[in-house]
Specification:
The protein has a single domain, classed as 2-Layer Sandwich (NE0471 N-terminal domain-like). It has three helices and six strands. It is globular and about 35 Å long. It binds zinc ion (ZN). The site of zinc ion (ZN) has 7 residues, from helix 2.
Length: 96
């Protein structure tokens, strides 16, 4: 399962079209909140599950999306955060 099309809609959602002909949509705030990188994961662990961060516009604007090999996408946010590597399965799982 790989993304065939990635698009940001209304500056608010990441829409993904998959090669199995399904489409998923995730809010950018949700995407950022579920960033799998070590820094974000440990911050979430420290603050607990109920912590809901408030993000600035820059933190919720995608500057670039890179496909990493055939297993993940790397999201580069406008605030410079670029360590989030979202494996395809994970990305699909957190979208709906
Ligand atoms: Zn992160």
């Amino acid at each position: 399962m790989i993304p065939v099309k990635l698009s940001v809609t209304d500056k608010k959602f990441l829409d993904v079209k998959w090669d199995d002909d399904t489409e998923t949509r995730i809010k950018l705030a949700n995407l950022r909140m579920k960033c799998p990188c070590a820094a974000c994961s440990s911050e979430r662990a420290e603050r607990g599950e109920k912590y809901i961060p408030i993000y600035s516009d820059e933190e919720l604007t995608i500057k670039e999306i890179k496909i990493i090999g055939n297993y993940a996408v790397e999201i580069i946010w406008k605030d410079g955060h670029d360590t989030g590597i979202y494996e395809f399965g994970y990305l699909k799982k957190i979208s709906n």
